[in-house]
Prior knowledge:
mainly alpha, Non-ribosomal Peptide Synthetase Peptidyl Carrier Protein, Chain A, 58% helix, 0% strand
Amino acid sequence: xxxxxxxxxxxxxxxxxxxxxxxxxxxxxxxxxxxxxxxxxxxxxxxxxxxxxxxxxxxxxxxxxxxxxxxxxxxxx
Length: 77
């Protein structure tokens, strides 16, 4: 999974600058609302051709969390 693609999707969803999206960035600090999070997860599912289970969503706080969860899902597929 690519941090660059994840950052681009987050930047597009929040209208923040892509260079502001760092691995340690908290999604709330980037301006992601609950609705934005759902939109972002849908975009990630499309981009990486995976399904993100609902129980994973609550454990995602940072950009790095997204990367880790996507890598875990990719390995288990």
